[in-house]
Amino acid sequence: MDTTRGQTASTTIRRQLTRIVLVPSISFLALWATVTTVGAVQAGALMLSATDGRMGAEAFGSIVGQLREERRLAQIHLGSPSPASLTALEEQWRRTDEAFTAERDTILLLGERAGGESGEQAEEFLDTWEELPRLRSEVAENRVHREAALERYSDLVADAHLVSEVIVMGVGDNGSLTEGVLALQVLRARDEYSQAEALLAGAIAAGGMSYAETAHFTHLTASYRDRLTNARRDMSPSVAARYDSMVKTAPWEEVQRLSRAVVTRDPVKDTALPFGTTATWNSDIPVTAAQWHTTARATDPVLGELTAAQVQISLEQARRSALRGVLLNACGCLSALAAGALAINSALRSSRGLTERLQRLRAETLELSDTRLPDIVSRLQEGRRVDLALEPPPLWHGADEIGQVADAFNTAQRTAVAAAVKQAEIREGANRVFLGIAYRNQTLVQRQLRLLDEMEHAESDPETLRRLFRLDHLVTRGRRYADNLIILGGAHSARRWREPLPLVDVLRAAISETEDYERVRLRSAPKMSVQGFAVADVVHLLAELIENATQFSPEGSAVDVNSGLVSSGLTVDVEDRGLGMTHSAYEAINRTLAEAPEFDVMAFPDEPRLGLFVVARLAERHGVKVRLCPSPYGGTRAVAVLPARLLEEAPSPDTAGQELTSLRLRHLAERTGSSRPGGAAR
Questions:
Q1: Cis before 554 (ω within 30)
Q2: pLDDT of residue 317
Q3: What stretches of 495-617 adopt beta strand conformation (E)?
Q4: Cβ–Cβ < 8 Å for 206, 214
Q5: In whole angstroms, how far apart are CA 204 and each of 87, 149, 192, 284, 625?
Q6: Where are the transmembrane segments (predicted)?
Q7: Is the separation of the CB atoms in 638 and 648 below 8 Å?
């Protein structure tokens, strides 16, 4: 006995899963988490760095390119202000602003993501950019010297280059740093070339070049040539070949020739001055604007291609380095995964059987709870018998914990079915009592009506006859209330008509069964008849709607009943002049009318409106659509749409604008009640 208990304890699901999964899972997770975390962080940093480098190069390349052109046009305008030069400059301002607007979000993103020095440089660049409108205003109004404007534009470009430098230098590992340094050298060389081009273009436009400008131009041309020459030694073969090809092109050679002509021109205008005479600086420029513009513009794209190629090499090396890191991380993860797979392989084989059993139990449980049990409950609610010995079938899954779970569910479902059976029996018994009381009340009402008929036929005094009519009306309403109980109990009213009844008589009969029928005005009734099998229910349905309108409208106000043909059948509108209801109240009532609920006292609100449930039951029985909505008079409008299958044409005259007196309603009730079972007068 003890041995059996020990074996049972050692083979429980909890112990099996602990033994099978815990040890290999912990070792696998520890190894995998370490390798994956470290590798993922490194690989992610490398990939993000490479991506930022490419984004930064593209963003600042676009902005700096437009700034260089704006700097050149500003120098030309300051050298020789004219409407044409100002127009060209303003158009370039627009292009520069568009480039900055397009890349602003990228710059902010790079600054936030990089943080540290990159973020500070990005913020400094954006702050410097805020000074650009003032510089433009000074240039447009010719309030700044060319040399000062050149310096301020160059400072802005330099700030952009500083951000680019920090980003590029932060890209990749040590293997790509050399290419990054070369990219920075080429970028600086191109900017110095652009400064020299703008400086000379402005001087040519001004008609002369000062000593300071000549010195600055000399420095710029020497500097960009030295940078390119020094970078050539470390360039990759493809970029070096591109450089060698560039320096042999005619535009490049022409630019160098023109630059040398400017730098090496005679420093003074007249070298044959008498002794003691002060020499004058030679500001003449031996280069025309057309020569410089044509040659410099032809060289700039070639130098730009060289710069782009070197930047691309740097970014490509960074990308390869990042990919290499990703691959190494993936290999490490796969290795850890393989080790973990070997560790849990035995666990998978052992737990597979348990998993399949649990899945099978789940499927069978869901089938019982979602399909079989609802079907059993539905049959019980319909009054059909259920054999508890056969339904529902029990689940069997062994004697371990899974089997115990199945047994527990078997117990739960047996209890649920037994409770449903008990509830159905209680409901059926209560319903029988309910209907028995209703039928007894209806029998008494019928006897009262027959007695009243005899008294009315025998009475000749008008006042007594009026009182008998009033009593007859109250008893008729009592018969409808008894019918309410029968309908709510799921049975049919005892009243039947064999032949179709004119619609006008149906409407009058419905009005006659309401308490304040004197307030009801029948406005219209088409020449139609209601099929005999539906007359009693239609009269009952309309009487409930009309009585609801009279009860919830001010005393003495009129309630109008209109009817008319529509494409789907016939509508009957009951409109009162009460206070109406809220939108939510209309929605709640219309939901009840659209879907007849089960008659369950627990579902009623504090003030149940039994008439609405009766209307919903009758409407569902005959396919009548009933809806309540606000009335134009502030009250409520009830619309009942009778389907065409309940109607047929009738020769009876149309009734419009007729107000019914109590005597007419009494006679109407006497006429329309002639088809009651047993041949009674009602």
A1: no
A2: 76
A3: 501-502, 520-522, 528-530, 559-566, 569-575
A4: no
A5: 19, 16, 18, 9, 92
A6: 20-48
A7: no
Cα–Cα nearest to 107, from 180, 50, 58, 171: 58
Q: What letter would DSSP give residue 650?
A: -
Domains and CATH numbers, the chain: 13-269+283-334 (no CATH), 501-679 (3.30.565.10)
Model pLDDT, residue 497: 79
Q: Work out the end-to-end distance of the chain between its first and last CA atoms, rounded to an integer number of angstroms.
A: 83
In a 10 Å sphere around its CB, with 0-12 CB exposed, 13-18 middle and 19+ buried, how is residue 42 labelled?
middle
How many CA atoms lie within 13 Å of 399's alpha carbon, on the beta-carbon side?
A: 3
State pLDDT tens for residues 18-75: 666 667 677 767 767 776 777 666 666 666 666 666 676 677 778 888 888 888 999 9
Q: Which residue type is seen at 244?
A: D
Facing residues of 369 across strands?
none
d(CA 309, CA 295): 22
Question: In the predicted model, is pLDDT for residue 256 greater than 60?
Answer: yes
Joined together, the tokens standing for residue 279 give 């020499």
Structure tokens at 585: 């109240």
Residue 276: left (phi > 0), alpha (psi -120 to 50), or beta? left
C-alpha count within 13 angstroms, C-beta hemisphere, residue 105: 2
Side chain identity, residue 357: R
Q: Is 563 in a helix, a strand, or coil?
A: strand
49 C-beta neighbours (distance < 10 Å), count: 22
How, if at all, do strands 658-659 and 636-643 pair?
A: unpaired
Tokens at residue 386, please?
Answer: 């259920």
Please write the tens of the pLDDT for every residue from 202-245.
999 988 898 898 999 999 999 999 988 988 888 888 888 888 89
Contacts of 302 (CB under 8 A, 6+ apart): 246, 249, 251, 252
